[in-house]
């Protein structure tokens, strides 16, 4: 037994010291993240994850960090990842990743919806360390909105066109209002893990595939079905309905008069990252001819 113990004590001394000090440092932080997760310190784990993403050599760790973040989200749908809430002048922030699949075409965009006390003069979302997520702003507008408790807030919407889905990694959100109040916040984007996915099944019907179990702490996935017609060079909504359960796979009978329409079906899944609501919306859309039955 003493001989075995002596051999074990000598093993570390026999291991050569290499130039991979950075690897060991990163591995140590990852180990600490796992320990924080085991200790149920989700905010501490998230702060360490921000540090890891700030390092240059995270490509090999990306999928592992994604998995760890998803595991941490299981407790309360991500609300405990960030302990700090919004400053008093910010009411809510929703970040929505949108994927739209049409016949022969796939497009992606990102939408920010922000409620604040005063109008915003600047909204920036930056990929670490200093890259703009998109040079193409589809739309950015602000308007007043009255809440259920009769407060009047400023609603800012910013929608960005993307060449491809945002990759996993570290991002920084920077907001400034017209009173020169500034707020910066770290975000970690990860690959979506949808509960349900929709796909076309026939000319006028679709299928809802269940991919995994729903986290009971998260909002129910929402299916929205919208029918548009095309008149005077514009698409106009002629019928729409949202569902949180018992998802349909075709339009109700006689929902629209016989004609040619564009039918859009989306599934939206929501989860939190601290106070911020993240939404992943996947849409399928195509032209459908509805005839008399």
What does the model show?
The protein is globular. The strands form three sheets. Strands 5-6-2-1-14-13-11-12 form an eight-stranded mixed β-sheet, with no helix packed on it. It has helices at residues 2-14, 21-38, 42-53, 62-73; strands at residues 90-102, 105-116, 120-127, 131-132, 137-146, 152-162, 169-177, 182-189, 196-200, 206-210, 222-231, 234-243, 259-273, 276-290. Mean pLDDT is 86; it is low at 1-19. The protein is an alpha+beta fold and 293 residues long. α2 runs antiparallel to α3. β11 and β12 form a beta hairpin. The longest helix has 18 residues, at 21-38. It folds into three domains: 20-73; 90-189, Immunoglobulins (Immunoglobulin-like, Sandwich); 196-290.
Give the helix tally: 4
Please tell me the CATH architecture of the largest domain by its name.
Sandwich
Give the CATH topology of the largest domain: Immunoglobulin-like
Distance from N terminus to C terminus (CA atoms, Å) equals 86 Å
Instruction: Describe the main β-sheet briefly.
Output: 8 strands, mixed
- In terms of DSSP E residues, the strand content is over 45%
CATH class of the largest domain: Mainly Beta
- Going by CATH, what is the homologous superfamily of the largest domain? Immunoglobulins
Shape: globular
Protein name: DUF2861 domain-containing protein
Keywords: Signal
Organism: Vibrio halioticoli NBRC 102217
Pfam family, one: DUF2861
